[in-house]
Design a protein that fits this description.
The protein is of the alpha/beta class. The chain has two domains: 255 residues, Alpha-Beta Complex (Spore Coat Polysaccharide Biosynthesis Protein SpsA, Chain A), CATH 3.90.550; 76 residues, no CATH class. The chain contains 13 helices and 13 strands. A nine-stranded mixed β-sheet has the order 4-3-1-5-11-8-12-10-9, sandwiched between helices. Helix 6 runs antiparallel to helix 10. The two termini are 30 Å apart. This is Glycosyltransferase.
């Protein structure tokens, strides 16, 4: 099976991800391919020295983006490399792991017969983590086989047009009031749709993943992707299943982001510059003073960040505020973060 890792300018997290794969995935030969969109070359060269078994593919905008990231600056033109991901998936194995660079495995996983099992059960999607939020694995359990739980998603509706109309179709305030009086689905009712969709942190059937990105318009639009998922399920009717692992196999990081776009403070003077921050962490990792594999059961610890920032102009307190805001975005709808 192939493992595809989406990567952008965080080689310290990418190193952690690869180390966890080598430590925890058992009894199978896997092909690890990094899909990189702008990590400076010297960091990727260092990663290849540490992990010679990996392959690295580059997006069409790699050169331009990496030049900006090398200087700790946000790229002038920002685009999401969806076409790059899609083309690489087309070349992947029928079932493949898709990870972000800030995902890492925390438990052993025997994948010797996983692909054959998913084929035999006509499985579209195997979810590997859900941040402790039961609404993200709200399902009707069917059976467990070889460490995989197969389920029927508990969705408000499996009709694509109903999903679109109820959750996104009524922008008029008058209609919103009517829907509220009728006790129509709210945000919590929408969460179970993530039992059939994820941007990463899962094993996908190749054709299913490709269908999710139909008409993507170069943006990550969760509404469209869930709509596309429902269209695919409707077409296949009862020939498909979904699955998750009995417990969460992955964790995701809250130390940093790939962009400046989210979780900033309210005033311009308080904005935390993620590109400057990542450059500092990248250099500390590259120079061997930032040990990202100290404890793979937890995220990189604040004490390590404080140590790295102590010799820089970046405020540890501002980073803490940014990180807490980042975590709050997820805990606000039921996720649990260590």
């Amino acid at each position: 099976m192939d493992i595809l890792i989406k990567s952008f300018n965080r080689p310290y997290y990418l190193d952690r991800c690869i180390q966890s794969i080598k430590k925890y995935l058992k009894n199978s030969t896997v092909n690890i391919k990094v899909l990189d969109d702008g990590t400076p070359k010297k960091y990727l060269d260092y990663l290849e020295q540490k992990h010679p078994e990996i392959d690295i593919a580059f997006s069409s905008n790699y050169q331009e983006k990496s030049a900006f990231c090398e200087g700790g600056i946000k790229p002038y033109k920002w685009n999401i490399p969806i076409d790059f991901w899609v083309e690489e998936v087309k070349k992947s194995s029928e079932y493949f792991f898709l990870l972000e660079d800030d995902n890492w495995f925390v438990k052993p996983m025997d994948i010797s017969e996983l692909s054959n099992l998913l084929v035999s059960e006509s499985t579209l999607f195997l979810k590997l983590f859900w941040l402790g939020n039961p609404d993200l694995v709200s399902t009707e359990f069917i059976e467990q086989k070889n460490g995989v739980c197969f389920y029927e998603p508990k969705l408000f509706s499996k009709q694509p047009w109903v999903y679109n109309m109820v959750f996104y179709g009524f922008n008029n305030r008058y209609f919103r009031k009517i829907l509220k009086l009728l006790k129509t689905p709210n945000f919590e009712k929408h969460l179970p749709y993530y039992t059939i969709y994820a941007v990463a942190g899962a094993v996908f059937k190749r054709d299913y993943f490709l269908s999710l990105w139909d008409n993507h318009q170069s943006i990550v639009d969760e509404r469209l992707q869930i709509y596309n998922a429902l269209k695919y399920i409707k077409k296949e009717h009862k020939k498909v299943t979904f699955a998750n692992t009995p417990s969460e196999m992955l964790k995701t990081g809250f130390v940093s982001s790939a962009t400046n776009n989210n979780y900033e403070q309210s005033t311009h003077t308080d904005v935390f510059d993620m590109f400057t921050f990542n450059k500092i962490l990248n250099e500390a990792w590259y120079n061997g003073v930032f040990d990202v594999s100290r404890d793979l059961t937890k995220d990189i610890q604040p004490s390590q960040i404080k140590s790295v920032l102590s010799s820089s102009d970046v405020s540890f307190t501002k980073w803490q505020t940014w990180s807490n805001n980042f975590k709050e975005h997820y805990t606000s709808f039921g996720c649990k973060i260590d």
